[in-house]
């Protein structure tokens, strides 16, 4: 339909894989998987449930009868009960034991946890892919000198590859946050209306050990080893805040990269990929706008704001539960992941096709390196017998005059010519030029880049294959 709003996150930006995780099919099939796990575990624990009933439920996990559910919800005004009834329409023999002992959050919250698990795994895979592509770029250019900036002013030289290592280091920190979220993930379990498990205690005639065992079995069937030991009706909304914090961190890293690249593209030193038929501007045919990097910044900005929703929700839960979290979470959780998914798709695309212009980089170095070399020139002049204080004053005056000439008249940097023509310095232009080898001013940047890639990045990439199975989405 073209007469209704549709989210551009789905129609333009996010991948099908991430959209699938937040789709109705994922949600409601996971509800049914949870109902199967509950019924099967209750049967195993001795409740009067037959294998035929469990098998009937298993047979209808994925053929979700949405129209029946909508019809029931229009009458009962309760989405979970509507789907209990719709599931029962397909499973007439099991109708009476579906959702036995549970409250709505048994399916809604446990399904949300599983959704977050699969979404985090997919984000992790995509962060690793970005690292893989940046790794190749950083290694290739690890020794290529370039201007380093502080306050967006030329400072000292670094290398193109070393700067890329800064981008990768941010992503490694993000992986630590994601892994922490996955490591600390717990299922809500079967806690009941206020978290006391009183309904399940009644089912098992007051036997607490059986209630604990039931919860353990359900968690294992759903692929998690732990449950929250205490809860209200929901799992702690603090966990949503933790997860969206990790997602926001990825957006922050991507924003930093994209903003750096936008500046580099303005300097004509490094560009994002540009297709042969791509149009940069409808009016200015010569333009090569960094549209992918700009889109990263736009989407990342949205993702960075959404953790505030989770923080507000976590802090305003009343006692054991209030429902003002529901509508907000339907928006904030999917949009955070869909936004970052789109960001990472763009990040990987750019990282795999950045174009470097060494001659333009060298030109900018040549404009600034004479200033940066003045300390070496000073030391060499003293070594050849000059007076340190006198030479320092001469360099100060020459530097200011050369800089003024560049800014005022738009001329080249003539600092070397000025120093070579100054009788106070016991060296000529040729000797001064020998002091301007850019590679002598990058410090340990090439070595740092190599060590970082080999010691920090490569182990992550090597381990990615072993973790590939974690990215499977269980729908």
Annotation, overall tally of beta strands: 4
pLDDT < 50 runs, ≥5 residues = 469-475
**What percentage of residues falls in helices of 4 or more residues?**
55-70%
What is the overall number of helices? 20
Terminal-residue CA separation = 27 Å
> Could you state the order of secondary-structure elements as H and E?
HHHHHHHEEHHHHEHHHEHHHHHH
What amount of the residues lies in strands? Answer: under 5%
Structure, explained:
- Residues 369-453 form the Adenylosuccinate lyase C-terminal domain.
- InterPro entries: AdenyloSucc_lyase_C (IPR019468), Fumarate_lyase_CS (IPR020557), Fumarate_lyase_fam (IPR000362), Fumarate_lyase_N (IPR022761), L-Aspartase-like (IPR008948), Pur_lyase (IPR004769).
- Keywords: Amino-acid biosynthesis, Lyase, Purine biosynthesis.
- This is Adenylosuccinate lyase.
- It catalyses: (2S)-2-[5-amino-1-(5-phospho-beta-D-ribosyl)imidazole-4-carboxamido]succinate = 5-amino-1-(5-phospho-beta-D-ribosyl)imidazole-4-carboxamide + fumarate; N(6)-(1,2-dicarboxyethyl)-AMP = fumarate + AMP.
- The protein has 475 residues and is mainly α.
- Helix content is 64%, strand content 4%.
- It has helices at residues 8-13, 16-21, 24-44, 51-58, 66-76, 79-90, 104-140, 160-183, 198-203, 208-221, 238-266, 291-305, 307-315, 326-351, 358-372, 374-383, 388-409, 415-420, 429-433, 445-464; strands at residues 145-150, 153-159, 270-271, 355-356.
- The chain has a two-stranded antiparallel sheet.
- Helix 5 (66-76) packs across helix 6 and helix 7 packs across helix 20 (445-464).
- Mean pLDDT is 93; it is low at 469-475.
């Amino acid at each position: 339909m073209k007469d209704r709003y549709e989210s551009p996150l789905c129609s333009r930006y996010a991948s099908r894989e991430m959209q699938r995780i937040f789709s109705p099919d994922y949600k409601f099939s996971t509800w049914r998987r949870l109902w199967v796990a509950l019924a099967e575990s209750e049967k195993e624990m001795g409740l009067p449930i037959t294998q035929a009933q469990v098998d009937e439920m298993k047979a209808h996990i994925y053929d979700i009868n949405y129209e029946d559910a909508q019809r029931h919800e229009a009458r009962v005004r309760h989405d979970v009960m509507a789907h209990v009834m719709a599931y029962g329409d397909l499973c007439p023999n099991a109708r009476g034991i579906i959702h036995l002992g549970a409250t709505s959050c048994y399916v809604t919250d446990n399904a949300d946890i599983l959704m977050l698990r699969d979404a985090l795994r997919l984000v992790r895979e995509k962060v690793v892919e970005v690292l893989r592509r940046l790794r190749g770029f950083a290694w290739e250019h690890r020794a290529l000198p370039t201007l380093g900036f502080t306050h967006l002013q030329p400072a000292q030289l670094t290398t193109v590859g070393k700067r890329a290592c800064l981008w990768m280091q941010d992503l490694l920190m993000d992986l630590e946050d994601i892994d922490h979220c996955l490591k600390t993930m717990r299922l809500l379990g079967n806690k009941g209306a206020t978290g006391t498990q009183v309904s399940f205690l009644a089912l098992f005639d007051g036997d607490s050990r059986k209630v604990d065992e039931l919860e353990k079995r359900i968690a294992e069937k759903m692929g998690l080893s732990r449950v929250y030991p205490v809860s209200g009706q929901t799992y702690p909304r603090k966990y949503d805040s933790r997860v969206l914090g990790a997602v926001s961190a990825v957006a922050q890293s991507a924003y930093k990269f994209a903003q750096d690249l936008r500046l580099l593209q303005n300097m004509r030193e490094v560009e994002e990929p540009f297709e042969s038929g791509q149009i940069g501007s409808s009016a200015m045919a010569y333009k090569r706008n960094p549209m992918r990097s700009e889109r990263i910044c736009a989407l990342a900005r949205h993702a960075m704001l959404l953790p505030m929703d989770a923080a507000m929700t976590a802090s305003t839960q009343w006692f054991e539960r209030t429902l003002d979290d529901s509508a907000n979470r339907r928006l904030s959780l999917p949009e955070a992941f869909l936004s970052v998914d789109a960001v990472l798709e763009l990040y990987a695309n750019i990282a795999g096709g950045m174009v470097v212009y060494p001659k333009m980089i060298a030109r900018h170095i040549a404009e600034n390196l004479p200033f940066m070399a003045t300390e070496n020139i000073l030391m060499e002049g003293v070594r050849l017998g000059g007076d340190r204080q006198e030479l320092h004053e001469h360099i100060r005056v020459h530097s200011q005059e050369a800089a003024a000439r560049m800014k005022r008249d738009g001329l080249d940097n003539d600092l070397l010519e000025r120093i070579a023509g100054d009788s106070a310095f016991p060296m000529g232009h040729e000797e001064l030029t020998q002091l301007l080898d850019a590679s002598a001013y990058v410090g340990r940047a090439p070595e740092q880049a190599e060590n970082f890639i080999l010691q920090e990045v490569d182990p992550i990439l090597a381990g990615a294959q072993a973790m590939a199975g974690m990215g499977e989405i269980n729908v």
